[in-house]
């Protein structure tokens, strides 16, 4: 039976459970609930979203235990109604059920050449624009779109295609947040209040058309994700059908563009690199402070603060004797007590830290990309893309705030990802 025994939680209401307690941004609301009600169970808090039990994990020790000792049990994803409507007939890599198809989809990588070429194009565009205010996220978004499109299909997108993809991505992320009430209260789905189901159906149709045009235009390109998937389709005893290929390409585009560009937008530009040539991806290994800036930005401003939810495929028991039932949804929230002055931008804190020396340093990677076998497969791509983009922006230009007021770092509320409430403008 789903649920958890002996884990504290606030009083729930009939039908809605604890959904009435959740405000935007969601991760701040969950953190407040954990601080108020979850102190007696080792960083665990039991909530109910409608009738579904939801376990909130908010301590490094509990997270490490859940996604190491019980990693297989938590490798599943909950079958939420909103997510079933979006990915055609095939789940995306991040939301696919744990099994053979997910293992095959995850074996994708990218090339450095696309990122270096994209960086050169971005610098050229900024240079031609001359002095004046720049919308940092829009610039970063176009760079990331071109990098990932080159990786997926071997081509660049036209401006209207970039805008269309951006609109679809933002709509999809807004509709599939971790606490979408339509996912947990069946009567809302039946009544379709707010026309949520119709909007998702229309969005799914547009995604289908966009993905099909992308796949059809570059069906013979050899050194791309599409080319790799088509070869896999020909030689595999269990071939990937066209729906799977289309969904994988859309997942890479929509999953990588919004998150990477949001991270670039909130990074503070306080490090400089050499000016003898344009920075390349191969230089990143020799730039520890640049890596610290990216890491600190991801800690302070994780673009997906609660990550896609997990679901227990079988029951298990965590430290303290707490039994977690099959079907329990598991969410992870960061613990600010891991670091001194956790809300202060201090990249130097990572200069002497080793990746796995203690719970705290392992926990810092928990939030941006997850942990265990469902850790985000795009982690390497995201870190390299952000590093190249931030490096060349610092190397080639001197940046100032777009006005006299301090930069507003308050968070927006777009669903899965967490953009800035006010777009960053710089000069």
UniProtKB/TrEMBL annotation:
InterPro entries: Cyt_P450, Cyt_P450_CS, Cyt_P450_E_grp-I, Cyt_P450_sf, Plant_Cytochrome_P450_Monoox
Binding, heme: 376
Gene3D superfamilies: Cytochrome P450
Keyword Oxidoreductase: yes
Cofactor(s) required for function per UniProt: heme
Family, as annotated: Belongs to the cytochrome P450 family.
Protein name: Cytochrome P450
Lineage summary: Eukaryota, Viridiplantae, Streptophyta, Embryophyta, Tracheophyta
